[in-house]
Backbone:
C-alpha cells in the first residue's frame, strides 16, 4: 500500500471500522470515513487530526438507502480512491419468520447491496489505474449456523462467498486490454508474486470458487513450472500415475508440457487420452506470450464443452455467458496471442 493515498472506510465511526481508520491514518493514508452518528465521526476526525499528519473527511451516510449511497459516490468523485474497506454492517436477532421484513431488507441493503455498489464503482477506477484494493469485513456467522442469527448469517455468506470442494487456489476472472480483473479464493496456497502476470489470463480453479462469482467461468486447479508455464485442467483422468503430488492435473501437465511444436503437443494429448480413462481433458496453458486452450471430453458434452468470446480480447468459460460466446468442438485446440486466435488444431 506504499503508493496508496486515499482510503474509504464505511461504518468508520465505531468498532472495527474506527480501528481501520486509525490504523490506516497511522500508516500514512488519508481517509474518508462514513457512518450514521455525526458526533462520533466528528470525535474520530478530531483524534486523527491531533495524532497523525494525514487528512480525514467524514460523511454521514445511511447505507440502507440506495439514494444516499449514490449521493456519497457523487460527493467523493473528486478523490482518487486506492483502498475501499467495506466494513459497515449490522445484524438482526430473532426467529426468521418473526423478524420485520423491512428491517431485513435494510440489513440486505447495507450488508450486501451497498457493498456491491461501492465495490463495483471503485473497482472500475482501480482497474484503469492498475492499482487499488478492496477489503470486505465479514463474520464467522457466514460459515456456521447460528440460532436466531440466520438472516444475518446469510448476508455474511453473500459477502464472503461459499466454499467449493476445491476451494484452495486462486484465479483470474477475465482479461480485457491491459486491465486484469481477478478474484482470489479465501484459502490461497499460491504466492501471487511467484506467478507471472501472463499466467493470469484465464487461469482459474474449481468449478465455482465462491457463490458470488459469475456462474461457471472456467475455474481450474493451476500449476506452474520453473520455466513459467502455467497449466490448469477440468475433468478427471483415472489411474494416471501421480508425480510428486496426488493430482491427476499435475500428472497430466508433466506428460504434455515439454513440446517443441503444436503438433507434438497434440500427440502428447492423444497419448494421455488413449492411455487413461477420463471424463474431461480440458485445459488452459500459458506458454510464454500465448494461451493454449484445449477442449476434449469422453462424456457429458453439456458439462465439458468450453465456450469462448473473442470479440473483446479472449475469454473462455464453461458455458455461454452472452450471445457472443461460441462453443469449442470436442478435441479442438486454440492458440491465442494478444487476445486473438492464431491457430486452430484438431487433436
Residues:
Amino acid at each position: 500500500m506504499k503508493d496508496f493515498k486515499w482510503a474509504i472506510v464505511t461504518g468508520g465511526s465505531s468498532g472495527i471500522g474506527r480501528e481501520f481508520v486509525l490504523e490506516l491514518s497511522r500508516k500514512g493514508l488519508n481517509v474518508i470515513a462514513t457512518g450514521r452518528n455525526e458526533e462520533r465521526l466528528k470525535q474520530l476526525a478530531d483524534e486523527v487530526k491531533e495524532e497523525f499528519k494525514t487528512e480525514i473527511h467524514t460523511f454521514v451516510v445511511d447505507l440502507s438507502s440506495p439514494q444516499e449511497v449514490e449521493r456519497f459516490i457523487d460527493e467523493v468523485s473528486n478523490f482518487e480512491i486506492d483502498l475501499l474497506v467495506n466494513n459497515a454492517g449490522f445484524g438482526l436477532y430473532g426467529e426468521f419468520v418473526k423478524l420485520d421484513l423491512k428491517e431485513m431488507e435494510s440489513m440486505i441493503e447495507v450488508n450486501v447491496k451497498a457493498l456491491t455498489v461501492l465495490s463495483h464503482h471503485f473497482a472500475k477506477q482501480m482497474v484503469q489505474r492498475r492499482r487499488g484494493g478492496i477489503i470486505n469485513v465479514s463474520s464467522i456467522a457466514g460459515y456456521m449456523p447460528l440460532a436466531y442469527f440466520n438472516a444475518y448469517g446469510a448476508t455474511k455468506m453473500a459477502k464472503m462467498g461459499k466454499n467449493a470442494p476445491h476451494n484452495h487456489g486462486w484465479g483470474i476472472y477475465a482479461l480485457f486490454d491491459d486491465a486484469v480483473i481477478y478474484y482470489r479464493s479465501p484459502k490461497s496456497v499460491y504466492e501471487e508474486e511467484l506467478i507471472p502476470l501472463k499466467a493470469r489470463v484465464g487461469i482459474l480453479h474449481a468449478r465455482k470458487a465462491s457463490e458470488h462469482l459469475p456462474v461457471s467461468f472456467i475455474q481450474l486447479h493451476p500449476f506452474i513450472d520453473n520455466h513459467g508455464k502455467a497449466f490448469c485442467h477440468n475433468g478427471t483422468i483415472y489411474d494416471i500415475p501421480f508425480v510428486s503430488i496426488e493430482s491427476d492435473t499435475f500428472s497430466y501437465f508433466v506428460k504434455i508440457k515439454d513440446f517443441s511444436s503444436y503438433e507434438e503437443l497434440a500427440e502428447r494429448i492423444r497419448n494421455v487420452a488413449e492411455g487413461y480413462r477420463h471424463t474431461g481433458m480440458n485445459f488452459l496453458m500459458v506458454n510464454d506470450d500465448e494461451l493454449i486452450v484445449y477442449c476434449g471430453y469422453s462424456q457429458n458434452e453439456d458439462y465439458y464443452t468450453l465456450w469462448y468470446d473473442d470479440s473483446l480480447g479472449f475469454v473462455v468459460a464453461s458455458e455461454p455467458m452472452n450471445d457472443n460466446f461460441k462453443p469449442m468442438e470436442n478435441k479442438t485446440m486454440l492458440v491465442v496471442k494478444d487476445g486473438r486466435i492464431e491457430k486452430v488444431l484438431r487433436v
